[in-house]
Design a protein that fits this description.
By secondary structure, the chain is α/β, with parallel strands linked by helices. Helix content is 34%, strand content 23%. The protein contains 15 helices and 22 strands. The chain binds S-adenosyl-L-homocysteine (SAH) and FE3-S4 cluster (F3S).
Length: 482
C-alpha cells in the first residue's frame, strides 16, 4: 500500500474478458490518473466492442492504441509523453497502427496535440466518446480526427461499461461528471467541464447488474460526490408546478446512497470523493445507518491553513474542517478518514506548513495522497499567483508531511491489534501466494493465510500484527455477510 503514501500516477493496461468472437480488430487501451479515467476507459471499451474491436494486452499486435490521459500535475503529462515515444517505436514496425489520445490531456491540448506529437491520429475529450465510431471512420480514411466538445448533459448513463482488468469483485460506478468548484490550482473544471449528475435509475440498473454478476463491492465515483443532485422523474400533472415537482422528486447524494444500500444489502458500498464544503450531516447519518456502506471517507483537505485554503478557493476554513471531522467521529464511530494534501502552494509560509502538520496531528488520517504543487496552465492560480516556493522547500515539506502521515498511519493500524475485522478478499497478497489480501471497511489492507477461503469471500480476521500500511492477521470464520 506504499503507493497510498506518495504520489504515483496510477497506471493500468486493461484487458476485457467480454470479447466478441466475430470481432477482428485489436484495441490496446491504457489508462492513467484518477479512478474516473479507469471508469471512462470501460465506457470507451464498450463503445469499441460494438465497432468490431476486442481488447489485447499486447501493444505490438494492436490495430488501435488508446491512451486515457491525466493532466492533474505536470508529471502525469510527462508520463504520457514517454508512452507516446514507446508507441512511436512500435508504429515504425507496424505503420498501420493508429494512436488516439483520450481524457484530460486531449481536452487541455486539443488540436495542438496533433502538431506536438506527430504520431497521434485522434484526440478525444472526456465528453466525446460517443463520437468514436465517426472519428474512427476519419482515421481509417487517413485523416486526423478531433472531438473535444464538452457537454452539459452527457453522463454515459445509457452505456453499459465493459469491465477492464477486473478481479470480478470491485467495480467503479460513475455518478457525476465534471466539477463546478474551481479550486484555483485544479485543471479538472477545464478538462472535464461542468458538473452533471447521472440518472439514479441507470445507476441502480448498473449496480443490480454488477451484483447479479457476482461483484461484491462498488465505489460510487465523482469529482465531488456530495453535490450529486438529480431532478426528474414523476409526471408533471401530479404537481402544482415544475419547481414543486423538482423538489419532490429530487435525489440527493444521501438519497442515492440509501437507495443503493437498500437495493443491494450484500454489496459493500464506497464513494469517492467527498468535498468538505458539500458534505452534509445527512450523508453521515446514511453511512451510519446502513451496515453495507463502509465506514470510510476520503476527505481531501489540501492545506491546514485557512489563508491558503482561501487562496485555493476551497469554501471552508481550517476550523470548519475540524468541526466536520468531529461530526464524522460523533455520527460514525470508528470511521476511517483519508486525505489529499498539496504542499508548496504559492505564498505558503513555514507557518502555513506548520498549520498543515498540526491539522494532520489532530485528525491522524488513516492514509493519504500528498503532492507537491504543480502549476497548471490556465488555472486561476497560474494566472494570478507566482509559483514561488522553491523546489527544495516543496520537497522538504513533502517529506515532512509524508513522515507525519506514516506515523499517523502506524497509530491507526496499531489500534486494530487484537481486534477482529471484516475483510473482503480482493487479490493474492503481493508478498506471498499463500496469503490473501483484502480491505476492512476503513479501507486498510489486511493480509492473512488463504486456508480454504476464496476470492470474493467476506472473512472475519483477527489482527495480530501490523505495519504502518497493512494489517496482518488470522482468519476466524466467514462474516455473516457471505
Ligand atoms: N475532486 C477530485 C480532485 C481531483 S484531483 C477528487 O476528489 O478526486 C486529486 C488531487 O490531486 C486533489 O485533491 C489535489 O490534492 C491534487 N491536485 C490537484 N491539482 C493539483 C496541482 N495543480 N498540483 C498538485 N496537486 C494537485
Ligand atoms: Fe478539482 Fe476542486 Fe473540483 S480539486 S476536481 S476543482 S473540487
Amino acid at each position: 500500500m506504499e503507493e497510498k503514501i506518495i504520489d504515483e500516477t496510477k497506471q493500468g493496461i486493461a484487458l476485457s474478458l467480454e470479447s466478441k468472437a466475430e470481432n477482428t480488430r485489436k484495441l490496446y487501451i491504457e489508462s492513467y490518473g484518477c479512478q474516473m479515467n479507469f471508469s471512462d476507459s470501460e465506457i470507451v471499451a464498450s463503445i469499441l466492442v460494438n465497432q468490431g474491436f476486442n481488447t489485447t494486452s499486447k501493444l505490438e499486435e494492436a490495430d488501435l492504441v488508446l491512451v486515457n490521459t491525466c493532466s492533474i500535475r505536470d508529471k502525469a503529462e510527462q508520463t504520457v509523453r514517454k508512452r507516446l515515444e514507446k508507441y512511436n517505436a512500435i508504429k515504425r514496425i507496424n505503420p498501420s497502427m493508429k494512436v488516439g489520445v483520450l481524457g484530460c490531456m486531449a481536452e487541455r491540448l486539443k488540436e495542438k496535440f496533433l502538431d506536438e506529437e506527430k504520431i497521434v491520429d485522434m484526440v478525444v475529450g472526456p465528453d466525446a466518446y460517443k463520437d468514436l465510431p465517426n472519428l474512427l471512420k476519419e482515421i481509417d480514411a487517413g485523416r486526423d480526427a478531433v472531438n473535444v466538445v464538452l457537454s452539459k448533459d452527457e453522463t454515459y448513463g445509457d452505456i453499459s461499461p465493459v469491465r477492464l482488468g477486473t478481479n470480478g469483485i470491485n467495480a467503479l460506478v460513475s455518478i457525476t461528471r465534471g466539477c463546478d468548484n474551481m479550486c484555483t490550482f485544479c485543471v479538472v473544471p477545464f478538462t472535464r467541464g461542468r458538473e452533471r449528475s447521472r440518472d439514479p435509475r441507470s445507476i441502480l440498473e448498473e449496480i443490480n447488474d454488477l451484483a447479479q454478476k457476482g461483484y461484491k463491492e462498488i465505489t460510487l465515483l465523482g469529482q465531488n460526490v456530495d453535490s450529486y443532485l438529480w431532478y426528474g422523474g414523476g409526471l408533471k400533472k401530479d404537481f402544482k408546478n415544475a419547481s414543486e415537482m423538482e423538489k419532490a422528486t429530487a435525489t440527493s447524494f444521501s438519497g442515492l446512497l440509501a437507495m443503493v444500500a437498500e437495493a443491494q444489502p450484500k454489496l459493500r458500498i464506497r464513494f469517492s470523493t467527498s468535498n468538505p464544503q458539500d458534505m452534509t450531516e445527512d450523508v453521515l447519518h446514511t453511512v451510519a445507518k446502513y451496515q453495507n456502506i463502509c465506514n470510510y471517507i476520503h476527505l481531501p483537505v489540501q492545506s491546514g491553513s485557512t489563508r491558503i485554503l482561501k487562496e485555493m478557493n476551497r469554501q471552508h476554513t481550517r476550523e470548519e474542517y475540524i468541526e466536520l471531522i468531529d461530526k464524522i467521529h460523533e455520527i460514525i464511530p470508528g470511521c476511517g478518514i483519508s486525505q489529499d494534501l498539496i504542499t508548496g502552494f504559492p505564498t505558503e509560509t513555514e507557518e502555513d506548513h506548520q498549520d498543515t502538520l498540526s491539522l494532520m496531528e489532530y485528525v491522524k488520517y488513516y492514509f493519504g495522497f500528498m503532492f507537491k504543487y504543480s502549476e497548471r496552465p490556465g488555472t486561476t492560480a497560474a494566472r494570478k499567483l507566482k509559483d514561488d516556493i522553491p523546489e527544495e522547500i516543496k520537497k522538504q515539506r513533502l517529506t515532512e508531511i509524508v513522515d507525519a502521515q506514516r506515523k499517523h498511519s502506524a497509530y491507526r493500524t496499531n489500534q486494530f491489534l487484537g481486534k477482529t475485522v471484516e475483510v473482503l478478499i480482493e487479490r493474492e497478497s503481493k508478498k506471498s501466494d499463500a496469503q490473501w489480501s483484502g480491505r476492512n471497511p476503513q479501507s486498510l489492507v489486511v493480509v492473512f493465510p488463504k486456508e480454504s477461503y476464496k476470492l470474493g469471500d467476506f472473512v472475519m480476521v483477527k489482527i495480530a500484527d501490523c505495519t504502518s500500511a497493512t494489517l496482518i492477521g488470522e482468519p476466524v470464520g466467514y462474516s455473516s455477510n457471505n
